[in-house]
Amino acid sequence: MTxxxxxxxxxxxxxxxxxxxxxxxxxxxxxxxxPRRSKLLTVLxxxxxxxxxxxxxxxxxxxxKTQAGLGSSNGLWFADDFALWDNIRDTFTYGDGIxxxxxxxxxxxxxxxxxGATLLAVLGGYALAKFDFPGKRGVFATVIGAVAVPGTALxxxxxxxxxxxxxxxxxxxxxxxxxxxxxxxxxxxxxxSEAIPTELLEAxxxxxxxxxxxxxxxxxxxxxxxxVTVLLFTTVATWNNYFLPLIMLKDPDWYPLTLxxxxxxxxxxxxxxxxxxxxxxxxxxxxxxxxxxxFLFLQKYWxxxxxxxxVKE
Length: 313
Fold this sequence. Notes:
Blueprint: H1 15-29, H2 39-62, H3 67-72, H4 84-130, H5 136-148, H6 155-165, H7 172-178, H8 182-195, H9 198-206, H10 211-222, H11 224-239, H12 243-248, H13 257-266, H14 277-307
Helix pairs in contact: 4-7, 4-8, 4-11, 4-14, 5-8, 8-11, 9-10, 11-14, 13-14
C-alpha cells in the first residue's frame, strides 16, 4: 500500500518577515564588488585635481605669451600673440646660452647623485633584508631616524663640513650629499624583504653560485620595480633640489635649473635688471617636461613597486 506524500502547509509568515522582504531584496541587489559612491570623496578628489592641474595649465598658457602679453591678458587664457616658439628660442639663447649649461649641470647631478643614491640604496637594502649581522637593529634605528630628519636641518652642518674640505662651489658639493637617501634605503629594505624569497637564494647558493652572481642573476631582476620606484623618488628630489645648491654654489656656471631660473627671476628686483618673466615661465615649463616624460614611461614599474607585498598569498 502506497502512503500518499502530503505537503506540509506553509507556516504563517510573521509580520516582521514580510516587512523585511524588500530590505533583503535591496541587499541582494547591492554588488559587493562595486563600492558606493561618496559625494564628499568626489568633491575632495575634484579639489585635489584642480589644485594639481590648474598650475600646470597656467604654466602652459603663459609660456605662449610675450613679456608684454603677460601683463595685458588673463592669466588663464591665451594672449593675442602666440610666442611659444620664440620664447623657447630666447630661453636657450639668452645669456650666451646659459640655460643649456644649467640643464647639463642638472643632468650631471641627477646621473651621479640620484643614480648613485639608487645604487647604494639597492645594495644596502638587499644586505639589510637578506643578511644577519651584529648591529642590525642599530642600523635600522639609524635609518628610521635619518628618514625623520629634514634635509634643511642638515644643510648648514653639511656646508661647514664641505667648506673645511674645500669642496664648496664645486659639483661635488651637490653630488655627494645627494648620494645619501635614507628613505630610498628603507624602501629597498622593505621591498627586498617581500620580493625575494629566501628559499630562492638558498637554492642558488646550493647550485654553487657566489654571492655576487646570486645578487646579479637572481635578486636584481626581482628588485626591478623597487629600483625604478627609488630612482624616480631620488631623481625628482635631485632635479628639484634648490636649497643645497643655493648655499653650496656661487659660480653661475655650476647652477642647476632651479637656482638658475631663480636668478633670472630675481633680475626684476635689481636696479637696471632686465625683466624676463616670459623666459622664466618658459624655462620652468621646459624644466618639468623631463620629469613628466620619466613618470609616463616608468609609471607601470612605479605602481607595481608601490603595490608589492600588499597582498599575501
